[in-house]
């Protein structure tokens, strides 16, 4: 049976992935910053078939508690087979442009907190010589766009970190999965008008579950973002800088 640590477990996408693991009878350790919501999510997963669901309330900006988080998860579940990191915030680009503080806050939350968690988690999985680490990145990390390049920078940093980590962990049998969703209808995107390219959280969450089971390297969700981003990345900079994307 799978023991999985889900960090950012209140994320709408992560909840859908957690439901897939719950119906397999997994043991879950969930981390989120809102205790009340976390308990409601845990109760739902128990009803859906999870054998064990434990919770840990933490604002992940508290870097000095990341080690404690892992120790609590290992103490509760015994061992960890899988790790999913899902938390994030869609940065307000305009506010970031006006404020260094806001920019650094967003980079800390979306990139450095994840890198801190990955550093601790990777050492654990490296010792175990098995397991799977998955992180929700974004297509926004594939190319910096004027409308969201602070968020994109954080996701690009994760992309590079995960590339290196994947090659390190491949030698010891640990999979590292980078998930790159496009637009998904979740609380994060509630203020954005939903167009044709919007996906629902459920299929994206299920796609993450499958990608983790299959130990994939990089997965675009839905799949059509892979060719779209291939085109976006191939536009010459001299043209790209004139576009309002
Ligand atoms: N939705 C999209 O279009 C889209 C596209 C590409 C990638 N993604 C990525 O997918 C992941 C999940 O997002 P989502 O769409 O499921 O949105 P969501 O439902 O808004 O989930 C984001 C979660 O991150 C949590 N979070 C943020 N900062 C945190 C912190 N410092 N400590 C603890 N929890 C924190 C939020 O907690 P609270 O609820 O307490 O605020 C929220 O539960 C994110 O990494 C996001 O960047 C989303």
What this model shows, in words?
The protein has 245 residues and is of the alpha/beta class. The chain has one domain: NAD(P)-binding Rossmann-like Domain (Rossmann fold, 3-Layer(aba) Sandwich). The chain has helices spanning 12-23, 35-47, 66-77, 93-98, 100-128, 149-170, 201-213, 225-234, 237-240; strands at residues 3-7, 27-32, 52-57, 82-85, 131-136, 174-181, 184-185, 199-200, 218-221. The mean pLDDT is 97. The structure holds NADP nicotinamide-adenine-dinucleotide phosphate. NADP nicotinamide-adenine-dinucleotide phosphate (NAP) binds at residues 8, 10-13, 32-34, 59-61, 86-89, 109, 136, 138, 181, 183-184, 186-189. The site of NADP nicotinamide-adenine-dinucleotide phosphate has 25 residues, from helix 1.
Q: In a few lines, what is going on in this structure?
A:
Helices cover 49% and strands 18% of the residues. The protein is of the alpha/beta class and 245 residues long.
């Amino acid at each position: 049976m799978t023991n999985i640590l889900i960090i950012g477990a209140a994320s709408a996408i992560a909840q859908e992935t957690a439901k897939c693991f719950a119906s397999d009878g997994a043991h879950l350790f969930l981390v989120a910053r809102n205790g009340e919501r976390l308990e409601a999510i845990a109760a739902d997963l128990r009803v859906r078939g999870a054998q064990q669901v434990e919770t840990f309330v933490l604002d992940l900006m508290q870097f000095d508690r990341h080690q404690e988080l892992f120790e609590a998860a290992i103490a509760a579940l015994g061992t960890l087979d899988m790790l999913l990191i899902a938390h994030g915030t869609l940065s307000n680009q305009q506010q970031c442009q006006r404020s260094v503080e806001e920019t650094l806050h967003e980079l800390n939350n979306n990139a450095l907190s994840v890198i801190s968690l990955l550093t601790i988690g990777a050492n654990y999985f490296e010792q175990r010589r098995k397991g799977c680490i998955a992180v929700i990145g974004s297509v926004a990390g594939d190319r910096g766009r004027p409308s969201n390049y602070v968020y994109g920078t954080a996701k690009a940093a994760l992309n590079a970190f995960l590339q290196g980590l994947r090659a390190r962990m491949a030698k010891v049998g640990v999979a590292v999965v980078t998930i790159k969703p496009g637009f998904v209808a979740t609380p994060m995107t509630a203020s954005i008008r939903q167009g044709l390219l919007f996906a629902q959280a459920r299929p994206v969450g299920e796609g993450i579950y499958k990608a983790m089971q299959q130990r994939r390297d990089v997965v675009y969700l839905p799949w059509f973002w892979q060719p779209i981003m291939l085109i976006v990345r191939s536009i010459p900079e001299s043209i790209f800088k004139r576009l309002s994307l």
